[in-house]
Protein: Sialidase
Organism: Calycomorphotria hydatis
Amino acid sequence: MSRIGIALAVTAVFVTPIASATENDLEEQIRLDRTAIIFDGKSPNRLACDTTLRAMPDGSWVTIMLGGGDAEPLPQNDIFLSRSEDEGKTWSAMKAVDLGVKKENPNTALVPSELMIIESRATLFVATHDGTFADWKEWLTHSDDSGRTWSKLEPAPGRLHDRTFIRNHIVTRDGRILLPFQHFLRVGETRDINRGRRFSPPTDPRNGVLMSEDGGETWTEHGDIRIAINPNYSGWAENNIVELADGRIAMIIRADGRKVLYYAESTDGGRTWPEFATKTDIPNPGSKAVIYGLGGDTVALLHNPNPKHRSPLALWISYDGMTSWPYRRVLVSESFKGPAGRLNYPDGFISQDNSYIHFAFDDHRQRAVYFGAKLPELNSSRQLDRRTTR
């Protein structure tokens, strides 16, 4: 759709103990950033949400998103896919992914929650609901042709078939697959919200991981992490995980209304977790944030570092296992809609040479945008997070 361009928005703080930091380094990173518009929505199908960028087994890049209608949640919501054959420079038109659900009931809404690439297979995790998040189910489907065709939907394991989003996977150094999940014990009474929408609030979130030691053939569930004592707490809990140098699994959790991200940690590779997550000092307005292992204890964070608003969109890097974040760079300072606009849901992968984070985000629920953020020079001998690196 859109050709690649030089990214806008460039305020930053740049300090790193690993690479020699100069203003020239920072200016060069900014110069090498890449961006392109994947989708620019128009009513009655303006919505762009839950954007996810992945490198596929055949070498193409795919962005999937929640679309259909002008907002969410709505019964017309569906999953859409756009493909790039030139590493993000140009993109095909968004097309609905046909999973057979809309043919059975056009009023069933679909939401993508993770696109996992393991060797030659892509696995898409999908939520379905009635347009309000009542009757909410989580499913998975496989593709062995890089997302061109998909298998019949299968239910997510155990209790996670109900009221669950399964999020970004990692592959640990010993070869296990870990998938973080946010599961809700119930949804609240359906109520009117605005613009003709109705909502059944997800209530009492529990977080943990699914673990597979056989390449995804079988799964075990670990963790039941809470972020609130109050069982009536309602809010999304989009979580993300990374493996640290000593094998600990670190998890960040969105906590609506708390103004910061929450944190939980497993010291035995994801097998056991604390009962409650704890507050961090990382500001967050109640929005999805994602973390990526860059080797050892070096971790990248894409997020909105603002307790009040989903803007700006920034890249932070920690070199000490998420204890401190000395590298902080604003990638996008504000929405194309201006200061009141929102920059949402960044999600992507680390390049094979550890030089870029390639991701998609939605700009004010209307545009799906590709962004390639140039990373600072890192120690090349460190092992990369194997989540979505190609």
User: Anything to note?
Assistant: The first strand starts at residue 12 and ends at 13. The mean pLDDT is 93. Residues 360 and 382 are 26 Å apart (CA to CA). The chain has one domain: 12-374.
